[in-house]
Amino acid sequence: xxxxxxxxxxxxxxxxxxxxxxxxxxxxxxxxxxxxxxxxxxxxxxxxxxxxxxxxxxxxxxxxxxxxxxxxxxxxxxxxxxxxxxxxxxxxxxxxxxxxxxxxxxxxxxxxxxxxxxxxxxxxxxxxxxxxxxxxxxxxxxxxxxxxxxxxxxxxxxxxxxxxxxxxxxxxxxxxxxxxxxxxxxxxxxxxxxxxxxxxxxxxxxxxxxxxxxxxxxxxxxxxxxxxxxxxxxxxxxxxxxxxxxxxxxxxxxxxxxxxxxxxxxxxxxxxxxxxxxxxxxxxxxxxxxxxxxxxxxxxxxxxxxxxxxxxxxxxxxxxxxxxxxxxxxxxxxxxxxxxxxxxxxxxxxxxxxxxxxxxxxxxxx
Length: 366
What we know:
This protein has 366 residues and is mainly beta. 0% of the residues lie in helices and 38% in strands. It contains no helices and 26 strands.
């Protein structure tokens, strides 16, 4: 695969609260009012009672802690189709690689959750049919779903909050069961699709969006996949767009982002009279060959993939306005074509066509 992955969570991320992770309440001083002396434990009010746990669900499950004490693994698939699980700390591989995909398959979207690895095979490479594969890491059992039509999109598939797998195949968004990959349902779009599905929460509803081959944004309801689209835009994304991105701001507004022919476009999904529709939000500065962005703490990280006469550039944009906050300048020496952007552990990553991996972040303070 062109990318690597850490174990992940299927729960929806929380809405952006205007700040990054950290203290949930203001810091409290141990000093009292003037002339009143120090605050004593006796005079300190007791902490509020712990709220009861929410009902069992993975919709809002926390993501794995990248700084936890348990071993953290990085997963990758080799050209022989075997799954490698390496320690993040030093790259060591404590156990033998596990047979997963056929050799020389074109794999996309490698992800690991609930002790199961998933990947999509595309383009019929190595004589392997397009579809989705699931590997139980403990039992080493492999399941496969074979697509009737080509699997499209940059990421291969998407995962719902309860573990369902969604994949764009031909003109359908197909829903598969977790682990077994048995087909559950399918949404028939008006025409052929070009992007991987995007799963997001909208006022308690699980919605699935994709881009049609002519650039329209199409949204299906996860509770009624066989029904009509609940929202559809005009042709706004670049034809052939392979992936979408989404985030929800502190005001509860749901944003959908996609590459356009010369930049990044952002649209709001709004509800009027019980119907859903798209409203134009903002458009970024011009970019050469833009790829799907990533949103971290309300900041949109976008990448201009570049071409033979323009090197690739990473941009940080204000999620509400599209205003440029930062760019990588001339750091990347060539183009970026596959893999797009990835983020985690305070860094943003991009892989160049020359085999160089770039990491952008904050210097460590000592």
